[in-house]
Amino acid sequence: MQIATVRTETASAGPTALPLNQQERHVLSRLLRLYGTNSISYFALQAGKSHFFSASGKSAISYVLIGRVAVVAGDPIGPEEELLSTIEQFLAFCHEQYWTLVFWQVRDTLVSLYRRAGLHVLKIGEDAIIMTRTFTLTGKAMANLRSKAHRAEKEGLQIVFTRRNVQDVQQRADMERITRTWLASKGGEEMGFSMGYVDFCGDADLLYALAVDPANMVHAFVTFVPIYGRNGCALDLMRRAEQAAPGSMELLLIRSIDYLRSNGADVVSLGLAPLSNVTATKQTFLGASLDFLTRLLGTSSTNRSLFTFKNKFQPHWESRYLVFSNPLALPKIGWALYQAHRQNASLLKILYESLKKRQTSPAA
Q1: Is there a common fold for 5-127+323-360 and 131-271?
Q2: pLDDT in tens, 39-87
Q3: Do residues 94 and 67 lie in contact, with contact meaning Cβ atoms separated by under 8 Å?
Q4: Which distant-in-sequence residues (6+ apart) come within 8 Å of 241 by Cβ?
Q5: 131-271 domain in CATH 3.40.630.30?
Q6: Which H/E stretch holds residue 356?
Q7: If DSSP codes are grouped into helix, strand and coil, which group holds residue 39?
Q8: How many Cβ atoms sit within 10 Å of the Cβ of residue 12?
Q9: I need a labelling partner for 273 at 20 to 30 A (CA). Which of 2, 184, 309, 313 fits?
Q10: What is the Cβ-side half-sphere exposure of residue 187, based on CA atoms within 13 angstroms?
Q11: Residue 48 and residue 50: Cα distance in Å, rounded?
């Protein structure tokens, strides 16, 4: 009988991961391009994660270990007919290690599989999905969005797109300044695990979009990562300067949707709106006293503001879920989720600074 392949340290070694070897990385990359349908599937290859391969080798789960909690970003990556067995195999593996298991931002279409595996489900919010082929600015519902974008255009803003990295020195300096200010207002740390960070040595599939004025000053910028399995892209970072022209972010996203559509994307995710419940799902965090995730999901006023902004684009709202193995361990799970995002971000920052030094140092 073939057994599942796991690339991880033992539980006693703490939240560390072994790097994939070249063959395993190639396999995971191929699976991601075939089956990565979650808006955060892209981060499966992010540094700092451990990887579990199914017995068949056709599916994989990427996770981080925080104490004795295995935290998974998104869903298993593999063919649909094998997802249930992959979940069950990973659950059995976690039980053998005496680990608690949690999946973060599970897609609504797969919830029934997790329930069949005996796992517990709570809704954490909704993903704002734009179907690019039908997206339009016409109609009364889009009047406010049109007005905001027009105002930014009157200020002379133009949208610049670039893959992998930003070459313009002034634009890069502006982006770093905007990021420092933004991070200072959010507690001073990037959030990794299911989110990216400003990376000027990035993947070729990473898209930057910048709103710049006639003086080449950056007013706002966003990044998009691919959703390979849905032929689309997901909004990752979204940042603007303190004195950005009004409507700069609205213009930036409108032009980005147009750009992605013209380059063949069918779907654009504007990301999670935490605790939103447009679809009126019953099992949600809204009806539960689970305050321990406030640091990760944000305050109610922040979440309402984020939802209101994304709702301007008239998206299709898809429910996203937290799936977990032990309801008695919810406080520990909340802490692990928070630590997973902080820990992964710290590692990414170290790697980025190291790469930056190598890039700027003279050749040996």
Answers
A1: yes
A2: 999 988 887 788 999 999 999 999 999 999 999 989 999 999 999 999 9
A3: no
A4: 174, 177, 178, 181, 218, 219, 220
A5: yes
A6: helix 330-360
A7: coil
A8: 7
A9: 184
A10: 7
A11: 7
48 sits in the region (left: phi over 0; alpha: psi -120 to 50; else beta) called: left
Q: How far apart are CA 110 and CA 229, in angstroms?
A: 14
Least Cα distance to 110 among 83, 82, 86 occurs for 83
> What is the rounded CA–CA span in Å between residue 171 and residue 201?
15
Structure tokens given for 87 = 């979940």
Read off the DSSP letter of residue 263.
T
- Structural domain boundaries of the chain? 5-127+323-360, 131-271
What number of other Cβ atoms are within 10 A of residue 130's Cβ? 26
Least confident span in 176-180, 268-272, 297-301, 360-364: 360-364
Q: What is the CA radius of gyration of the chain?
A: 20
Helices 143-154 and 248-262 cross at an angle (nearest 10°) of 100
129 is written with which tokens? 């999905």
Which amino acid is it at 177?
R
**Class for the domain spanning 5-127+323-360:** alpha beta
- Asked whether 331 and 324 are in contact (CB, 8 A), the reply is no
